[in-house]
């Protein structure tokens, strides 16, 4: 009798399991079918649509979208206009698309220069540099704090023990200004084989080996060339620096400075008669680069900037797409991208001062915007996701992930209801590793080192859509680049939100004016955007939310949650 009851119980349990499997398969099949119906909208995610947005957001007219600069406000207007046109609700403060917050910054009003005789302390020249009104010295780097010191001449400023070159051997650079020629001819007889390396390292050596306080660079022998450069550089006076959230402390500014010097001032400092003498001196040093030794100039220079603290009103921009599942719509997936870049900055060798930021992060911004437009239209046509989506365009990433930090500390939707963050940053190029191949790829950071479920959904989405190479080489908590903490996703990850950072890698145009639209790989960008679209759908319609199940990641966030 006991054996018969046991047999009946086994059969009953087996029947229950079989029924559960059938129900699970049916539910999974139903979810898959629902997800597939969204594929029809993927045809609107095209290289042409992405290019149309990017050619505006990364154009010269938006002036690099710098925080505290006019171009950033123009970017805000563009993004909001498209969210409004697409029909997104105004969920922000005061019936807007915005989350407002203030940043603090330092603004330089002017720089006072005083040149004195280093022995008698007698003043021999003075001037004030303001925006649009340059002087004989023009700051190219640093100089936010007052500097005073003697001026010593260092020739080309080269130092190399192996080659016997030390232009600073007979002068004291520590605490002083070092005057050097900017142009170093590399094709002159007698130059060491490693001359290019010496030139690239000289600023570092002058600051950190010789302990110079400032470097004065003679870049021009022609007054007109200097006047054009100095006018451009003067426009950087007034650009905000030391940008931060008020509650997170300030920055003291960078005292050490590199400044360009007018040809006439260089002639004066070196005790020469003419600009031709300046050219001749350059030639003499070029012909005896190993034997040259620096000398005192007999002058002392004081550079005193007037710096005031100011408030920069800032906004995160939000496009909210509410889900349609009665319960799951309260859970949020955040798709984030920072819309700021470096703005107007120091000119490159071509004189270009606009840091367009086409890849960083125009590429992520336009992809987020296009996905918002496509999914909003899909919902209008009756295809609605279970979970809600927040398309979050964050400010001031370039100054320390500030916009996403503010949002994560002051979330519009509870962090405990935020089931995942997808972050797009530097998303549109082909990096060093893939330049010689035709591979379609994207670097994945997060996912499997945080949540096995999120990783699984990503791979399902990839196989169901574009099937590109998901390169995991940087997806390592011990990766020396620490990419898993270097963009806005980290402000979600530190709070326990699973994330995927989609990243296309580094390139020579990073944080340079040359990061322009013509270098974007739009065919790759299209595939990557379609992958994210499909992954959003998989996660939004999944029966259960992804959870953090990597204990090592949990330990890291506990040890360093900032």
> Any low-confidence stretches, pLDDT <50, length ≥5?
10-24
Structural class by helix and strand composition = alpha/beta
Q: What would you give as the CATH superfamily of the largest domain?
A: Zn peptidases
CATH architecture of the largest domain: 3-Layer(aba) Sandwich
- Would you give the CATH topology of the largest domain? Aminopeptidase
Task: Give a quick rundown of the structure.
This protein is of the alpha/beta class and 562 residues long. It has helices at 2-36, 47-57, 70-86, 195-209, 223-234, 263-269, 275-287, 358-380, 402-409, 452-464, 490-493, 522-541, 551-559; strands at residues 98-117, 123-129, 137-142, 147-153, 159-160, 165-166, 177-181, 214-218, 241-244, 257-261, 295-321, 332-338, 343-344, 354-355, 388-394, 418-424, 441-446, 469-471, 499-503.
Describe this protein's structure.
This protein has helices spanning 2-36, 47-57, 70-86, 195-209, 223-234, 263-269, 275-287, 358-380, 402-409, 452-464, 490-493, 522-541, 551-559; strands spanning 98-117, 123-129, 137-142, 147-153, 159-160, 165-166, 177-181, 214-218, 241-244, 257-261, 295-321, 332-338, 343-344, 354-355, 388-394, 418-424, 441-446, 469-471, 499-503. The chain is elongated, with a radius of gyration of 29 Å. The protein has a 15-stranded mixed β-sheet that branches. It has a two-stranded antiparallel sheet with strand order 5-6. A two-stranded antiparallel ribbon has the order 13-14. It has 562 residues and is of the alpha/beta class. Strand 7 (177-181), helix 4 and strand 8 (214-218) form a beta-alpha-beta unit. The protein has 13 helices and 19 strands. It has 2 domains: 37-89 and 322-559, Zn peptidases (Aminopeptidase, 3-Layer(aba) Sandwich), CATH 3.40.630; 106-309, no CATH class. Helix 1 (2-36) packs antiparallel against helix 12 and helix 10 crosses helix 12.
């Amino acid at each position: 009798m006991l054996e018969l009851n046991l047999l009946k119980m086994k059969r009953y349990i087996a029947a229950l399991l079989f029924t559960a499997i059938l129900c699970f398969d049916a539910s999974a099949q139903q979810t898959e079918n629902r997800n597939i119906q969204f594929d029809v909208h993927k045809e609107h995610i095209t290289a042409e649509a992405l290019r149309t947005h990017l050619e505006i957001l990364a154009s010269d007219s938006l002036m690099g979208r710098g925080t505290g600069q006019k171009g950033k406000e123009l970017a805000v207007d563009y993004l909001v206009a498209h969210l409004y046109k697409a029909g997104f609700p105004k969920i922000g403060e005061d019936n807007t698309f915005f989350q407002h917050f203030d940043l603090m910054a330092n603004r330089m009003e002017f720089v006072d220069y005083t040149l004195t005789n280093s022995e008698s302390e007698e003043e021999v020249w003075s001037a004030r540099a303001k925006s649009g009104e340059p002087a004989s010295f023009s700051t190219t780097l640093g100089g936010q704090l007052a500097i005073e010191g003697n001026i010593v001449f260092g020739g080309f400023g080269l130092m190399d023990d192996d080659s016997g070159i030390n232009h600073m051997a007979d002068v004291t650079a520590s605490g002083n200004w070092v005057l050097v020629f900017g142009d170093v001819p590399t094709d002159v007889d007698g130059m060491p084989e490693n001359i290019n390396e010496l030139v690239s390292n000289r600023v570092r050596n002058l600051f950190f080996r010789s302990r110079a306080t400032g470097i004065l660079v003679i870049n021009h022998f022609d007054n007109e060339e200097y006047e054009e450069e100095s006018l451009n550089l003067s426009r950087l006076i007034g650009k905000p620096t030391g940008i931060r959230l008020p509650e997170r402390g300030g920055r003291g500014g960078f005292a050490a400075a590199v400044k360009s010097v007018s040809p006439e001032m260089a002639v004066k400092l070196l005790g020469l008669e003419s600009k031709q003498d300046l050219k001749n001196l350059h030639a003499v040093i070029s012909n005896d680069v190993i034997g040259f030794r620096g000398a005192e100039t007999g002058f002392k220079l004081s550079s005193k900037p007037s710096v005031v603290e100011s408030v920069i009103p800032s906004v995160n921009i939000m496009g909210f797409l509410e889900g349609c599942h009665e319960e799951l719509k309260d859970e949020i997936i955040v798709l984030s991208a920072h819309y700021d870049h470096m703005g107007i900055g120091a000119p490159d060798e071509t004189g270009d001062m606009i840091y367009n930021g086409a890849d960083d992060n125009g590429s992520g911004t336009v992809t987020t915007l296009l996905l918002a437009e496509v999914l909003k239209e899909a919902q209008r046509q009756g295809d609605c996701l279970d979970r809600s989506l927040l398309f979050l365009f964050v400010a001031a990433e370039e100054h320390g992930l500030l916009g996403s930090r503010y949002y994560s500390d002051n979330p519009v939707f509870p962090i405990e209801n935020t089931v995942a963050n997808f972050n797009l940053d530097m998303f549109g190029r082909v990096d060093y590793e893939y330049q010689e191949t035709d591979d379609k790829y994207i670097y994945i950071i997060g996912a499997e080192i945080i949540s096995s479920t999120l990783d699984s959904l990503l791979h399902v989405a990839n196989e169901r859509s574009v099937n590109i190479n998901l390169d995991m080489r940087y997806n390592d908590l011990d990766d020396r680049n620490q990419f898993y903490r270097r963009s806005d996703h980290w402000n979600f990850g530190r709070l326990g939100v699973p994330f995927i950072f989609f990243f296309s890698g580094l390139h020579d145009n990073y944080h340079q004016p040359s990061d322009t639209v013509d270098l974007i790989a739009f065919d790759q960008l299209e595939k990557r955007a379609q992958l994210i679209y499909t992954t959003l759908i998989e996660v939004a319609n999944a029966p259960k939310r992804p959870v953090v199940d990597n204990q090592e990641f949990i330990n890291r966030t506990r040890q360093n949650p900032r």
